[in-house]
């Protein structure tokens, strides 16, 4: 029995010593500086800061009251963090809109940056909305257009049967810039059908964009 107790005590002491050694090793490891890839600490800035807006489909509210500023981002990493945590156009309520604009521009015709401009408009089948909206957003924040200073923002309108995406530009009289944006946009989306450019001043006096005069086509 004594021998057994002795062996048990020895085993206990050995276990305690082993635990103490492991604790010391863990303490040393925790005090040692971690090696972190510098790339993990760097965020990649975008050329502009962008603000995402959401227009909720609520007929009891005015258009202005229905506008919700979601958040702003200015780096690649912050964009993907946002994108991965919000619903796509296919998941939001019919009648709602997503609007992505440069942070100093409000998504309305009356804004100083928009009132002399227009929009390239694309009507799409609902099952393509998420794909085309993401590509549109990447065109904007990735500066796909040489005349990016002419780009104000983009909107996706979620409707009952079809959806619509539009890119807003600053000055419809800048024909070269407007046409460049339209051609690049059409190529990026690999569209076969034509897309139309409409002036905001014409859209404002029409009840629907279907009755708005087309100024340019690509």
UniProtKB/TrEMBL annotation:
**Any one GO CC term of the record:** eukaryotic translation initiation factor 4F complex
User: What are the Polar residues biased-composition ranges?
Assistant: 23-32
Q: Show the Pfam families listed in the entry.
A: IF4E
UniProt superkingdom = Eukaryota
Compositionally biased spans, kind Low complexity: 8-22
List the Gene Ontology MF annotations in alphabetical order: RNA 7-methylguanosine cap binding; translation initiation factor activity
Q: Which GO terms describe its biological process?
A: regulation of translation
Stored PROSITE patterns: IF4E
The family this protein is said to belong to: Belongs to the eukaryotic initiation factor 4E family.
Protein's name in the database: eIF-4F 25 kDa subunit
What organism does the record attribute this protein to? Anopheles stephensi (Indo-Pakistan malaria mosquito)
